[in-house]
Amino acid sequence: MASPSVEVVEKSDERIVVRFNNIPRQYVNSLRRLAISEVPTLAIDDVVILENSSVMHDEAVAHRLGLIPLRTDPGRFVMPHECDCKSTLGCSKCRVLLVLDAEASEKTLVVTSGELVSEDEMVKPVSKDIPIIVLAPNQKLKFEAYARLGTGKDHAKWQPTSAAIVKDGKDESEIILVIESNGALTAEEILTGAAERLAAKVKNFKQVVSSLKVPKNA
C-alpha cells in the first residue's frame, strides 16, 4: 500500500486547497467538520442599545451586528467559560468592546461596519462596507457591543468558514479539501485550528481508553 501524503495545492488568506493521498475520507471529513464547528472566532454576542430612534427593532440591530465577521487573532483571547475573571461582563482576556454613535442630519445615512470603533485595534470588522442600518433624517443609533469567542456548533455567527468542501480527486486514493474563510481567520489558521482540535480529541479518546479497566474474566 502506498504511503499517505498531504500536499497544499493552493493557499491564500481567503482560500486553501489541500490534496490528501491514501488517507481515509472520514479523517479528511473530520477536518472539514471541525473547521466549521469547533475553530473559535470572535463575534458580537451582547449589545446594549443606548439610543435607537430608527425603524429597526433593537433585536434586529443586535442580530445584524452578530453576523459581522471580526478579525480574530488566534491565541489572544480565551473562551468566556474558561476565563479566570469569572464575570458575566468579561474582561480584556475574554471580550472586546465596540461602540457606535451615528446620527443622520438632513440626509439619509447608511451606517456601515466601518463606523464601529473597537477598543482593540486588532479586532475590527473584516470589511468596512457591511451595511448595519439606514437612518432617516434626525434618526440616531447609539450602542455598546461586546464581542466574545465562540464556535460554530453554538451559533453560525462564530463559523470562520464561508465554505468547507471535501471532494474526490483524480482517482480513488486522492481526496481534496477546500476551505474558504469569511475573513475572521486566514484559511491556513482555520485548517491549523481544525487539525489541533482533531489531535486533542484523539489524545482525549486515547486517555479514556487507557483508563478503562478490563474485567478479570474477559
Structure description:
- Helices cover 22% and strands 33% of the residues.
- It has helices spanning 25-37, 58-66, 187-211, and strands spanning 5-11, 15-21, 41-52, 95-103, 109-112, 117-118, 131-135, 140-150, 161-168, 174-181.
- The protein has a 4-stranded antiparallel beta sheet with strand order 1-2-10-9, with helices on one face.
Low-pLDDT runs of 5+ residues are none
Overall pLDDT score:
94
Query: In this structure, how is the largest beta sheet organized?
Result: 4 strands, antiparallel
In sequence order, what are the helices and strands, one letter per element? EEHEHEEEEEEEH
End-to-end distance: 34 Å
Give the % helix. 10-25%
- Could you say which overall geometry the principal axes of the C-alpha atoms support? globular
Radius of gyration (Å): 22 Å
* Count of DSSP strands: 10
Which range does the strand content fall in? 25-35%
Give the neighbour order of strands across the main sheet.
1-2-10-9
Query: Helical element count?
Result: 3
Structural class, from secondary structure content? Answer: alpha+beta
Brief digest:
With 218 residues, the protein is α+β, with helices and mostly antiparallel strands. It has helices at 25-37, 58-66, 187-211, and strands at residues 5-11, 15-21, 41-52, 95-103, 109-112, 117-118, 131-135, 140-150, 161-168, 174-181.
